[in-house]
Write a structure and sequence with these properties.
The protein has 290 residues and is mainly alpha-helical. The chain has two domains: 5-128, no CATH class; 170-289, no CATH class. It contains 13 helices and two strands, in the order αααααααααααββαα. It has a two-stranded antiparallel ribbon with strand order 1-2. A hairpin with a 6-residue loop joins strand 1 (249-251) and strand 2. Helix 2 packs across helix 6. The longest helix has 26 residues, at 86-111. The model is unreliable at 132-137 (pLDDT under 50).
């Protein structure tokens, strides 16, 4: 039976885990659950895909995709393989759905674990980058407006006698790396950066929208001077690879084609105004229509 990849895509998009299921993440999940999960991927997909596709090269392709992009993308890339048996694709999808549900159930346990075996896997994710679900169509996020224009992000003036209003991230407290803060924007930079470092970077599609949401929750206009200061610091940290050496390819919010993003304050502001990252061709097309 021929696989309906459009239906497959929607099914997995609906079931997806917010975190990419790289081998390191599944190994951490194995440790906390005691289940043999990587061997299950091997038995269900890796050892069968060459036979299903009729060529050993597709086994190597799947392994590369799994290690580079995560399990979800590796399965979605089946659309580029020779026609695969429906029962094989169904088994692969069922496995992903089960692992996604299992990981979500144990995510907090994993990221707060002091088991050195789990910590090693999380360090691998941080070291090699933990990017977003870049190859799925992205839902447009809330479009923001800047009726008063976009300010230059100047360092905020210190507030005499300022006291923290936000909790310090527990990992920063543990290693004694919490900075001295002089104002709320300082705190928000620390809070957001620590979350991206220790809890997993949500990728370019989500990180700056999450940051904008956080700024607004604390009464700061993302396009005002304080908001732009925070965005600018996060842009610097991304480009310094503090959150990992992740991929800069994202799907355009308009056409769905992947393109390489240059991370700058200007490109981030554009994405916040558009509700997502937009490729140059779609930007040009929109400009012509105006």
């Amino acid at each position: 039976m021929e696989t309906d990849y459009e239906t497959l895509h929607k099914r997995l998009a609906d079931a997806r885990c917010p975190y990419k299921l790289y081998p390191a993440r599944l190994r951490a999940l194995e440790i906390v659950t005691g289940e043999r999960l990587l061997p299950e991927v091997e038995e269900t997909i890796t050892m069968r895909v060459a036979l299903a596709a009729g060529d050993r090269g597709w086994k190597l392709q799947f392994k590369r995709d799994f290690e580079t992009y995560g399990l979800l993308e590796a399965i979605l890339y089946f659309h580029s393989y020779p026609s695969l048996p429906g029962d094989f694709v169904e088994a692969a999808c069922g496995l992903y759905e089960r692992l996604a549900t299992l990981y979500i159930e144990h995510h907090q346990e994993i990221v707060t674990s002091d088991d050195p075996r789990v910590c090693v896997q999380l360090e691998l994710l941080r070291r090699f980058g933990d990017s977003s679900l870049h190859s799925l169509p992205q839902h447009r996020r809330q479009r923001r407006s800047a009726p008063n224009g976009i300010a230059i992000g100047e360092p905020p003036h210190p507030v005499p006698g300022y006291r923290r209003t936000l909790p310090v991230h527990p990992d920063l407290s543990t290693i004694g790396m919490a900075d001295v803060v002089y104002c709320l924007p300082d705190e928000l930079v620390e809070l957001l950066a620590a979350g991206f470092m220790f809890d997993g970077f949500p990728g370019l599609q989500g990180a700056f929208f999450d940051a904008a949401d956080t700024l607004e929750e604390h009464g700061i206009d993302v396009f005002g001077s304080d908001g732009q200061f925070v965005i600018g610091k996060l842009v610097d940290y991304v480009n310094e690879e503090m959150f990992g050496d992740f991929e800069r390819w994202v799907p355009c919010i308009e056409c769905g084609e992947e393109f390489m993003v240059t991370v700058s304050v200007e490109s981030v502001n554009d994405s916040l105004l558009d509700g997502g990252w937009t490729c140059d061709d779609c930007k040009a097309g929109a400009a012509e229509q105006r």
